[in-house]
TrEMBL record:
Organism of origin: Atopomonas hussainii
Subcellular location per the Swiss-Prot or TrEMBL entry: Cytoplasm
RecF/RecN/SMC N-terminal domain: residues covered: 3-358
Biological process (GO), any one: DNA replication
UniProt protein name: DNA replication and repair protein RecF
Listed PROSITE patterns: RECF_1, RECF_2
Length: 367
């Protein structure tokens, strides 16, 4: 998919924006604080109804404004189009619309506009908590496997039920045993889906990484969240007393993790910042390739401050890979000169200058 139109109002310092982005490469340049990241944030809001900069949305709404409003038209690979709209006010009221109808959840938005974000916070994928890596993994499984979302919702319900029972113990044991069976079934299914996805992700990741940087010895592995030799039912039974003391369930897919290691070290402990950025990029680009293999479209990449941490050779290699993905990319940077010359002549490219919240298109070729 590609965003063919984008309108933004009431977001951070941005003056009302009406853009017709390139379906391929969009470069946004401007001084610090000019509003480049805010535009990526607006696209993120349109695709996920949440920001990547702040857990609360109030700071995103422009000072003095009552709400922020995003509108976009998405073009799918099969030629169909969809109109998306998101509005959020200071009281937390959300309106999410697709093709004139109100949506109750953001999941449909995410399906319509799959986004991959690479920004200075992306290091958290390596050095942050397992939750960040589970979210990364589940993004991929969600987009390629339709069973994932309903199964994940069943898992959350059964897990909440068990944790409440562990804390308060107010339930008939037979009824709780039935909930445990539901928990085990959903957990095993989620684990199977994750493992199947990872089997495809690993070779794709290794191939992309090799094109970016030589990091021989880097391995990606998965731990499912409970002992790999034992059934979850057995593990839950064996850990029941401890779970009761803690008041939550210790084992299960809610504890799964991805491990990136170099030899016996955590990759995050030994890689430089630039190397970490390239590993994160390789993971996210590999996900883009897998999505292309199954969907009627592609994901949209938001790359905030692409040049930072990277030397010229690696910037060029990263741009080549993003270009080869054949999808829509929004890239920000302080100076155009850092990456504007890296693109093939026949790649559709649009360039925008961002100044004090105003966005002006300065170049478009091969549209
Ligand atoms: N709610 C808000 N209302 C109005 N302005 C805001 C609001 N929140 C932040 N700002 C301002 O909007 C600007 C946002 O800048 P943004 O982070 O998009 O800049 P940038 O071009 O990505 O800069 P950098 O190159 O430093 O990353 C900042 O100047 C900030 O002070």
């Amino acid at each position: 998919m590609a965003l063919t139109r984008l309108s933004v109002s009431g977001v951070r310092n941005l003056h009302p924006v009406n853009l017709t982005p390139s379906p391929r490469i969009n470069l946004l340049f401007g001084a610090n604080g000019s509003g480049k990241t805010s535009l990526l944030e607006a696209i993120h809001l349109l695709g996920l109804a949440r920001s990547f900069r702040s857990t609360r949305l109030t700071p995103v709404i422009q000072y003095e404004q009552a709400h922020c409003q995003l509108f976009g038209e998405v073009l799918f690979a099969d030629g169909l189009r969809s109109q998306l709209g998101v509005q959020r006010d200071r009281q937390g009221e959300f309106v999410i619309r697709q093709d004139g109808k109100n949506l109750r959840s953001a999941a449909a938005l995410a399906e319509c506009l799959p986004l991959q974000l690479i920004n200075p916070d992306s290091f958290r994928l390596l050095e942050g908590s397992p939750k960040v890596r589970r979210q990364f993994l589940d993004w991929g499984v969600f987009h390629v496997e339709h069973q994932f979302l309903p199964t994940w919702q069943r898992l959350q319900t059964a897990l909440r039920q068990r944790n409440s029972w562990l804390r308060h113990g107010r339930m008939d044991a037979a009824l709780q045993a039935a909930w445990d069976r539901e928990l085990v079934t959903a957990s095993e299914q989620i684990d199977r889906l994750r493992q199947a996805y990872l089997q495809q992700l690993k070779p794709a990741f290794e191939q992309v990484l090799a094109e970016l940087i030589d990091l021989s010895g880097l391995t990606l592995s998965y731990s499912r969240g409970w002992d790999k030799e034992r059934d979850l039912a057995e593990v839950l039974q064996a850990g029941l007393e401890r779970d009761r003391q803690l008041g939550y369930t210790q084992a299960g897919p809610q504890r799964a993790d991805l491990r990136l290691r170099i030899g016996s070290h955590n990759a995050a402990d030994v890689l430089s910042r630039g190397q970490q950025k390239l590993v994160v990029c390789a993971l996210r680009i590999a996900q883009g390739h897998l999505l292309q293999a199954v969907k009627r479209g592609r994901c949209v990449y938001l790359v905030d401050d692409l040049p930072s941490e990277l030397d010229e050779q690696h910037r060029r290699a990263l741009c080549r890979l993003l270009e080869a993905l054949d999808c829509q990319v929004f890239i920000t940077g302080v100076e155009a000169a850092q990456i504007e010359s890296f693109w093939r002549e026949d790649t559709p490219l649009a360039m925008f200058h961002v100044e004090h919240g105003r966005i002006t298109q300065t170049l478009a070729h091969q549209e």
